[in-house]
Amino acid sequence: MLERTAVHLRDVTPEAVAAVGDRMGDVDKSVLTGEYARFMATSLRRAVSSGIAGWRDDDLALVKHWGFDLASIHTPVAVWQGGEDRVVSMAHGEWLAGHVPGAQPHLLPAEGHLSLSTNRLGEVLDGLVAFHRSRATTDDLDR
């Protein structure tokens, strides 16, 4: 299936990127315009330019053990997941947030796989800045 899909991705244009496969719902298709469509078309072409091995490994990571225990993670983690995501299910985001100690879940039912990164980018960046500031304060206290 990946090989068949890769054939279409090797030459995908910005105008056609939203029509690739059935893995995108309306919310994701709605953000695939303009510069973002050009970026995604370029990314997809590059992703399959040397084969499907990376794509296959990414898909397998959803169903195989990652080689470490999620409970051993002590670094702060934020899980951002859209309920309209047809690539990675909301159930997986919920599961991941529930298995990483202290994970901050951001489970957004109206967002998709792509729309989350475009519609919520400011919130994601604000969260990273807040995390950095809290770490800087904690690190200062530890000295």
Task: Describe it.
It is a single chain. This protein has 143 residues and is mainly α. It has two domains: 1-64, no CATH class; 68-143, no CATH class. The chain has seven helices and two strands; from the N terminus they run ααααβαβαα. It has helices at 2-9, 26-29, 34-47, 53-60, 90-99, 115-119, 121-142; strands at 78-82, 104-108. Strands 1-2 form a two-stranded parallel ribbon. The longest helix has 22 residues, at 121-142.
Summarize the main sheet. Answer: 2 strands, parallel
Mean pLDDT across all amino acids: 90
Distance between the termini: 54 Å
Question: Could you list the spans in which at least 5 consecutive residues all have pLDDT below 50?
Answer: none
Give a quick rundown of the structure.
The chain has seven helices and two strands. The protein is mainly alpha-helical and 143 residues long.
Mind sketching the topology for me?
Blueprint lengths: L1 H8 L16 H4 L4 H14 L5 H8 L17 E5 L7 H10 L4 E5 L6 H5 L1 H22 L1
Parallel strand pairs: 1-2
